[in-house]
Every structure is written in C-alpha cells, then in structure tokens.
Amino acid sequence: MSSLPPPVVETGAGPVEGRRHGALTVFRGIPYAAAPVGAHRFAPPAPVPRWSGVRPAVEPGANAPQRTRKLPGLDAAPLIGEGWTPGDEYLALDVWCPAGDERARPVMVFIHGGGFVVGSKDAGVQTGASFARDGIVYVAINYRMGVDGFLPIPGVPTNLGLRDMIAALGWVRDEIAAFGGDPANVTVFGESAGAMAIADLIASPLARGLFQRAIVQSGHGGMTRTVPVAQRLVRKMAALLGVTPDRAGFASVAPGDPLLDAVETVSLPTTRLDLRGDDGREPVFGISRFVPVHGDDVLPLAPLEALKQGAGAEVALLIGSNREEMNLYLVPSGVRDKLNSAVGRLLAWVVLRKSQPRAWAVLKAYGMGRGKPAGQVLTDALTDLVFRWPARRFAEEHRGRTHMYEFEWRSPRYGDGLGASHGMELPFVFDSLATCTGAEGLCGTAPPQDLADRIHALWVQFARDGSLPWAPFERDGRTVYQLAAGEPVAEPVMPAAAFLP
Predict the structure, then answer these.
(1) Where does the Carboxylesterase type B domain lie (predicted)?
(2) Which residue in 112, 294, 403, 422 is the catalytic one?
(3) Cα–Cα distance between 404 and 383 in angstroms, integer?
(4) Residue 112 catalytic?
(5) Which of 21, 223, 367, 403 makes a 20 to 30 Å CA pair with 293?
(6) Rounded distance between C-alpha atoms, residue 328 and residue 79, angstroms
(7) Interhelix angle for 257-267 vs 227-241, to 10°?
(8) Residue ranges in the chain modelled with pLDDT below 70
C-alpha cells in the first residue's frame, strides 16, 4: 500500500478524489453532465451541478439501462460488461493517468460498442491501465443508449447519445489538463457502435475541434437513418408500450423492465418492422434497431455526403475492420451451419432480402451456386456489406490523412470457426488478453502476446504523434496494413462495392 495521500484533482464542478494503482492514478465515475432524469431525461446534456466537498471517484458507478444477452459457449462479459448497474448519474467517465509531475500527455478517449443498446465503460477488456502505463491519459465514457439515446421521438432532441459524447469531449477539452493531459492532443477511439459513433462525430459540425485524431475499429459512417424512417421504430415502440408516440408518452415509462422488454422485442429478427430507406436498403442489416439519424444539427447530412464536402478533413484517421466480422453473430448461434442445408440457399436469400434489394445477385457474387456452402456465402457477404466495404468507403471519402488496417488473426474457438470475428481485436488493442483467454474466452487458450504488444504499440504511437509505419489509404492504391502479418498489402475492390453506395 502506498503511503502517499489519495490523489485529488480540482474540476469545474468541484474536487474529485481518486486512487493510486502503483505508478498510475485512477478516477472512476466522474460526471460530465447532469443526471439524465426528470426534466433532463429527454433533453440535451446539461452542466453538472457543483458539489460541496471532495467527491470520491473510486467506484465505477451506474451505467445506461440495458439488458445483455448470452452467446452459447462464449463469455461476453469482458466485451460488453456485466449488464445494467442502476443509478441516475451514469453520464460519467473514468480517467487513468500516469503518476508523476509531467504534464501535457497525449489523451485517448474510448467510446464503447454494443449496438447502441448495451455496453459500458467498465467492460473488462477495455482497461485503461495499459495505455496509462505507456504515457497516455486514458478516458472512457458512458452515454445514453436505446430509447433514451437513439430514438427520434417527436418533441425530443435527436441523437441524444451522440450529444452526450460531444459533451464528454467538451469535458475533456476543459478539464483534462488538470489530470496531466494535453487538450490539444486528443485521439478518440472506439469499436463497433462506438466506432460508428466516432465516424458520425467526424462528420458532425458540433464535434469539430474536439479531437485531432480518430481510430475507428469495425465501424464507419454508413449506419444512420433518416428521421422519417427511424420514426417507424418510434411508433412500433409506442404500440408495444401502449403509449402515445411522443415525448409525453415515452416519459410516462420509467427506465426498467417494461422499456427493456420492448427494446428486446423490436430487436428480434421475427418482429415485423420495415426500416428500409427509399433505395430499398436497410443500412444496419438488422443488427440494431437503434442507431443515429441524419438530417438534424448533429448530422445535417449523411456522413459520407458530409465527408465529400470536406467535413472532418482536419482529423487524422486510422480505420479498419476484422477479416471475418460476421462470424461472431452467425457461428456461436449456429446460424451459419444451419444454412448449410438443403434449403440453405433459399433461407440465405430470405435473410439478406430484408436489407438488400439485390440479394440474389449479392449471393452469386460471393459464390452461391459454385459449391460453396450457403451459410458461408451469407457470412462472407454480410462481413463485407456490413463492415469491411463501408469502412473502405469511409476511408475513400475522408479528405484528411487516412490509414487503413485489417485484423486477420484467427481465434481457434468453435472448432476454428470463430476466426477473426467482430470484437477480436479489442484484447490486442488494449493489451488485455487475459480477460478473453480460457475455455469460453473469445481468444481461446493461447492467444499470441507478441501480437498484442505490436498492435497496442501502434495505437499508442498514433495517439502520440499521428504516425504509423505504412502508407496512407488512397482510392487507387488501396494500401491496407495486415496487423497479424505486420505488412501492408494493395487490397482489391470487394464484390460488395457493386451493391452499396
């Protein structure tokens, strides 16, 4: 035990007291906005009321209302957390700092994933210890999700979850120097829904100037809807809850089981709900019903259109995907193998047709009818349609410096079927392999520590000065750095290119 007194830092709302962890200092659960309850529930994030005395910042605190689901044979808690920890003050963040007197260290702000309906800053895989150990001031945030964060209810400001993230980044700009961070050297990074959100923030005029660099892991700006399309979900949710489809109706339902029951119901693939746009496409492919919308002050344009007009050109970008993203969704559930049956070709078409009007052409482009099992065809097609190709499109349209990576290390789980699935890069990025190792761990029993050392070092290097050891991505050259192989390759255009904007 250290004989030094606990660390205390003065913030704009009052002093906070953290804890010492060896050479690090840690502050947990610092509110960056007022509790989103009462009049603040369906309102933009408001300033934190000043507290009296020194506020303890040693416990993780509450997170957004949510209900997690289990995957057969997989311990998902390190990836998404332990579920809902109730409490009002969940618009909060953690700060991990290197101890010592040195100031103006690089800052990294992590935004967690979870389909905009689950997840937490406290999931075990995303520990801030490794980044703080390497000289980074690390920040992780919670934000509103689901109904309260990403449902465009009439009478309620849109994109409240994104507005929360912008408020948290404003807190970092104003407060992080007191924790030893440099507010002029901020890298925001995230995975899955967190990466989608960051791509949206790159395109948002309200987030301009709040970060200098961004790392987008298995995400892009292609998963937003127009407000009119998203309001079909508002009406469906209101009908399930038996309330009017407006602010008063949803405000009459407290966060808790009835609301989470409705979220779970609309998220089922069997629920009848058409969220296709005018082009006949459903840009989220059913993975989540709750996503940001464009056409408001946060996202005046769809993100790709905003990039074409120069939005985010001042941000240096590292973006990438995993080679077999959809395996996480289709292998543990058994869906991929079930489609490898006599009727698999028809079922694959039925599944894809809900989101893609040229479903049969897509399946043929990915090998249907040429001896490849139907389940594998659908898995490969969805990996490119949902994740890999839209990330390349975001890289193509981004007018600032852009580097592209691919994570291709394959987990041996599920009889070698899990592979380089969605989420697999996280324990390597955070150098936290122990959290995902074991009989039910994402990475199996013996993931390579040397690869975690290399990937984590690349993320730290990018946060320090923006440098990376491979050439930027260009529309013509298409340089993609393979993380496991440790080498850049010239990547060809994917078949998915013919079916997406």
Answers:
(1) 6-467
(2) 422
(3) 17
(4) no
(5) 403
(6) 12
(7) 130
(8) 1-2, 101
Q: Annotate 266-284 with b (16+ C-beta within 10 A) or e (fewer).
A: bbeeeeebebbeeeebbbb
Beta bridge partners of 457: none
User: For this structure, is 21 an active site residue?
Assistant: no
Flag whether 98 is in a domain: yes
Terminal C-alpha separation, the chain: 57
Q: Say which residues have a Cβ less than 8 Å from residue 339's Cβ, sequence separation at least 6.
A: 347, 348, 373, 374, 375, 378
The bridge status of strand 213-217 relative to strand 225-226 is unpaired
Query: Is 487 noted as a catalytic residue in this protein?
Result: no
What are the tens digits of pLDDT across the range 151-204? 999 999 999 999 999 999 999 999 999 999 999 999 999 999 999 999 999 999
Residue 432, in any domain of the structure: yes
pLDDT of 101: 67
pLDDT at 103: 77
Q: What does pTM read for this prediction?
A: 0.98
Pairing between strand 14-17 and 8-11?
A: antiparallel
DSSP of 62-91, one letter per residue? ---------BTTB--HHHH-SS----S--S
Q: Which domain holds residue 199?
A: 8-499
The backbone torsions φ and ψ at residue 400, rounded to the nearest 5 degrees and listed phi first, read -90, 180
Residues 91, 29 contacting (CB under 8 angstroms) = no
Give whole-number Cα distances, 129 to 95, 136, 278, in Å: 10, 9, 46
Q: Domain of 81: which CATH number?
A: 3.40.50.1820
Q: Catalytic pick from 175, 282, 324, 325? A: 325
Percentage of the chain lying above the pLDDT 70 cut: 99
| DSSP state for residue 1 in the 8-state scheme | -
What is the count of structural domains for the chain?
1
pLDDT of residue 1: 46
3-state secondary structure 190-238: EECHHHHHHHHHHHCHHHCCCCCEEEEECCCCCCCEEHHHHHHHHHHHH
Is 455 contained in some domain?
yes
CA distance 409 to 425: 8
Of residues 120, 192, 355, 432, which has the active-site annotation? 192
Is residue 1 included in any domain, yes or no? no
